[in-house]
Specification:
The complex is a heterodimer of chains A (116) and B (424). With 116 residues, chain A is an alpha+beta fold. Chain A is 22% helix and 34% strand. Chain A has a single domain, classed as Dimeric alpha+beta barrel (Alpha-Beta Plaits), CATH 3.30.70.1060. Chain B is an all-alpha fold. Chain B is elongated. Classes of the chains: A alpha+beta (116), B mainly alpha (424).
């Protein structure tokens, strides 16, 4: 069955902080409701904890690190789910159940099946 | 059969058989290629052999054979990343050759194709382009002419759109009842956009592209026939028919635009108007909640259609309808049209006030229309110098050549009118 990734873009906060417990509970509820089709995923620490890695030129070149996410945006990539769905409509229906869909946005992308 | 009639038959029959082939081969690109090849063979053979008794059956059988060839060929290429809409794979080859599909099967398949092509996860431009390709059977070159794009840009967009359908897994299915209203709205947006794109070709030498409009109308009719109980497609068809009914009167012999006030109403197509009024009436009766934007726009067009002359127009009712339209779907063009309606019902000064209230965005195309309307209203107030200045500002690159000539003539007339009496 096709797999999709649902990327959650929301406010850039610390999900472990007590003031976000209520929202985390909503995500847990989502996880319970759709547990049968969720194949993986994670919540991410804030973008302030991100490090962006680039290698100059080609493999083996100078490693350039920068503090922060790849792109600074108002809403940040704060988590992702790997979801199994029969088709895009099914995947979109599940994504619309994610709290991020009303607190930000959810980007749904089909994953490549390399077979094997 | 004349060459263009033949081409038209091949194209419309091809578009009709495509939807079923898409389902049986499970791939939009393969089905499209197969139908196109069958159409080419028909155009090559039929002038020589004569048109077969059942052209549709001939095309169906030929397209199926071509599709099987393509699938076998692709299968031999290790079958890597075969575009498939999660439907039947190459195993389905034997099933492609059953009897010719019944009308009800074709009906359901065409609906599937419509909902796939008009899926809201595709950009509106992509939906329109694909609908013209698959549902009207237009070639990339024809779409390019209708949408004022280059042929290569059309081809690129079609490729990208087909790839998204296949890779993202956009289903080939009629949506469930609970999803249907939203999805029908998406289909209606495509119908409306197909017509508007063809109706007001921007910047070009011709004011409209007749073929593009006819195709959009055909598409609207098809959707209404396939979803006969849905009020929105009914309203869209009514709106397009009403707009189309004025086409003969919209331009003069030189191809220049004629204002609604100056149009020869005997040139209006009364058959189209009559059909549209019945459609609109039925559509409104089937809607118990608030009217949708298409119903309201059609109702506005219907007010014009019912007026025997410009002076007989019920502008108060039109202002009321625009007010409703702006509540359900605020837009710059509708707000501008409302200001014009207010000028007609309450005088140019009131119209200018309504215009001044418009917080118009810096959309170039809207900008020029705003200045053009302001010029007209200022001239009615006798403020010719300001009218000339406003109209000058309205002439931008976005304005089509006939429209530009029209505005330039206004400038000349008003410049003369603005002179003190003795210099005239």
């Amino acid at each position: 069955m096709p797999q999709y990734v649902a990327l959650t873009y929301t406010k850039d906060v610390d999900w472990t902080a007590p003031e976000n417990a209520k929202e985390m509970a909503e995500y847990e509820k989502f996880g319970e409701t759709h547990g049968a089709v969720i194949r993986g995923g994670a919540a991410l620490y804030q973008t302030s904890t991100a490090t962006t890695v680039r290698v100059k030129g080609a493999r083996g070149g100078e490693v350039v690190l920068s503090d922060g996410p790849y792109a600074e945006t108002k809403e940040a990539l704060t988590g992702f789910y790997l979801i199994e769905a029969g088709d895009l409509d099914e995947a979109l229906r599940i994504a619309a159940d994610l709290p991020a869909a009303w607190d930000g946005a959810v980007e749904v992308r089909p994953t490549i099946d390399f077979g094997g | 059969m004349a060459a263009d009639r033949l081409a038209e038959t091949v194209r419309t029959e091809g578009a009709r058989i495509l939807a079923t082939l898409v389902r049986t081969v499970g791939s939009l690109p393969i089905a499209e290629d197969a139908v196109q090849e069958a159409a080419l063979r028909a155009l090559r053979d039929w002038p020589r052999t004569g048109v077969p008794d059942e052209p549709r059956a001939w095309l169906t059988v030929t397209a199926r054979r071509v599709a099987i060839d393509i699938i076998r060929r692709e299968g031999m290429r290790a079958g890597k990343e075969r575009a498939s809409m999660n439907l039947a794979g190459p195993d389905a080859v034997p099933d492609i050759m059953p009897d010719l599909p019944s009308d009800s099967v074709v009906h359901d398949d065409r609906l599937r194709l419509i909902f796939t092509c008009c899926h809201p996860s595709l950009a509106l431009d992509a939906q329109v382009t694909l609908a013209l390709r698959t549902l009207c059977g237009l070639s990339s070159a024809q779409i390019a002419a209708v949408m004022l794009m280059s042929e290569s840009a059309v081809a690129k967009r079609l490729t990208r759109t087909r790839a998204k359908i296949a890779r993202a897994g956009i289903p080939y299915r009629v949506p469930d009842d609970d999803e249907l209203p939203a999805r029908v709205a998406s289909v209606c947006a495509v119908l409306h956009a197909s017509y508007t794109i063809a109706h007001s070709a921007v910047g070009g030498e011709r004011l409209t592209d007749v073929d593009g409009r006819r195709e959009a109308l055909r598409l609207a009719r098809l959707v209404h026939e396939l979803l006969p109980n849905e009020p929105s497609p009914m309203a869209v068809l009514a709106l397009l028919l009403l707009t189309e009914s004025r086409c003969a009167a919209r331009v003069d012999d030189a191809g220049d635009p004629v204002l609604l006030a100056d149009q020869d109403r005997t040139l209006w197509d009364t058959t189209a108007i009559d059909e549209a009024l019945i459609l609109l009436d039925t559509s409104l009766r089937r809607t118990d909640a608030v009217a949708d934007p298409y119903q309201l726009q059609a109702a506005i067009a219907a007010e014009h259609a019912r007026a025997t002359c410009y002076q007989a127009t019920d502008w108060t009712e039109i202002v009321r309808l625009y007010d409703l339209l702006l509540t359900v779907q605020p837009s710059a063009p509708a707000a501008l049209a409302r200001a014009v309606a207010i000028a007609e019902s309450d005088g140019a000064a009131a119209g200018l006030d309504a215009l001044a209230d418009l917080d118009f965005d810096r959309d170039q195309n809207h900008d020029q229309r705003w200045h053009a309307v302001r010029g007209e209203l200022l001239a009615r107030e006798g403020r010719y110098a300001e009218a000339v200045a406003a109209t000058r500002e309205s002439i931008t690159d976005e304005v089509s050549a006939p429209e530009r000539r029209h505005r330039e003539r206004r400038i000349v007339a008003w410049s003369a009118a603005g002179q003190p009496e003795r210099y005239r």
